Amino acid sequence: MTRAVEMLRAAPTRTDVDEAVLAECIAACVECAQVCTACADACLGEDGVADLVTCVRTDLDCADVCAATASVLSRQTAYDAEVSRMVLEACATACGACAQECAQHAEVHEHCRICAEACRRCERACRELLTAIGG
Amino acid sequence: MTRAVEMLRAAPTRTDVDEAVLAECIAACVECAQVCTACADACLGEDGVADLVTCVRTDLDCADVCAATASVLSRQTAYDAEVSRMVLEACATACGACAQECAQHAEVHEHCRICAEACRRCERACRELLTAIGG
Amino acid sequence: MTRAVEMLRAAPTRTDVDEAVLAECIAACVECAQVCTACADACLGEDGVADLVTCVRTDLDCADVCAATASVLSRQTAYDAEVSRMVLEACATACGACAQECAQHAEVHEHCRICAEACRRCERACRELLTAIGG
Amino acid sequence: MTRAVEMLRAAPTRTDVDEAVLAECIAACVECAQVCTACADACLGEDGVADLVTCVRTDLDCADVCAATASVLSRQTAYDAEVSRMVLEACATACGACAQECAQHAEVHEHCRICAEACRRCERACRELLTAIGG
């Protein structure tokens, strides 16, 4: 997803935040939102869906929060550090919860294994961006 | 928006959270997301759009965060208090920032006056729900 | 949800579309998105979730399409009739499909009964707005 | 965005749709939603924002529709061809409108040039998927 970097560079406004760290966080949020949406659906299609109810719910929350975070981070005009910080904290928390839940089904369901990975990547990216912006 | 209450009552799972406080927060988030989307658009249509750039950006962030919060709060199955708490904190922060920005244009632009009100209602509802869930 | 009307009136730009019809459609989309999100979650919490898999999926699609439609309709600046028309067609289709699915569980699950009603209201509002804008 | 393909393969349900065409469409929608969000913000930050009002609006609509389309397409359980078709038609229309608008500013604003490209890719991917599912 080099598009996120290209768009950061093409924007008239620049934040002081490290561009690579910001771009990685946007890319990770975008990927995690899609993967969580797909994982919720895959869980729903499993014969043992009754045992995956918590996983579906956690996926859906994580997808919603990651999508909102990706949008907030994609904006550089009139940047508000406090809003960014709180959204990143929420996103890291949602990703951490989803990674933990999906990891429990990772050996049985490949979609949960991939989803746990995407969540861990996104949680890490959020924490690194929080450090970069002084959160 | 009594539908939010009806749906809380029709759900098989109940959280321990005060139903009225939760329903008010869902309704406030849903309303605030729509009003912020409309306010961003109204600002964009004003002759003096160049002076409303910060307002548009704050509206768009607030709309995204409120929409995600409404979705997370609308789920009661496999409730995760920590995710709810962090999302509510982020939402209250985004609403507070948007209310403050819109309030500065409230005397000139009726859409900003209404939006500031919707944001204040939503911020208050998030803080009350945070208290109710022990955040 | 009189806020939608207030915001339409406070906007600097006015479309030629009947204000009451447009406001009803925005309100119906916003309500339907929330109700479908809650219905998907309620289905997920039922003991017989395995029999409600199609319902959850239809709810999630309907929620996503209604939310996008509400946002597109909330914008009056630089209005594009063709985009509005296609989005409304998609929304009416998603609502019709979800109403049909939820109606099958309406006698057993109160959340599905309410959801079918919200979907029917939204489908109707989309069709009336389509007629109003000449779609 | 090979994650979208991996998730399609890891899912318990398979549609009859060509996997590569579906994955490309999901990836294009996800990318286009992010790029449009960033382009709307970049336009907002330009000195000549007053001349980019239509572009911001078109970007915001396109971002909303692409995000909803990505989510609908990421679900394979209980697939509904009619809903997919209508959503894809709406997405192709929104992308076509945004590509056309952004193309007009492509020589002056690099973010509009990139955005026009992302929209064209997404429009093409939607049309190809429509052909593949017989829309």
Structural account:
Four copies of one chain form a homotetramer. Chain A has one domain: Substrate Binding Domain Of Dnak, Chain:A, Domain 2 (Up-down Bundle). The model of chain A has no long low-confidence stretch (mean pLDDT 96). With 135 residues, chain A is mostly helical. In chain A, helix 4 packs antiparallel against helix 5. Chains in contact: A-B, A-C, A-D, B-C, B-D, C-D. Chains A and D meet through helix 1, helix 2, helix 3 and helix 5 of A and helix 1, helix 2, helix 3 and helix 5 of D.
Structural descriptors:
homotetramer, 135 residues, mainly alpha, Substrate Binding Domain Of Dnak, Chain:A, Domain 2, 5 helices
In short:
The first copy, chain A, has 135 residues and is mainly alpha-helical. Chain A contains 5 helices and no strands.
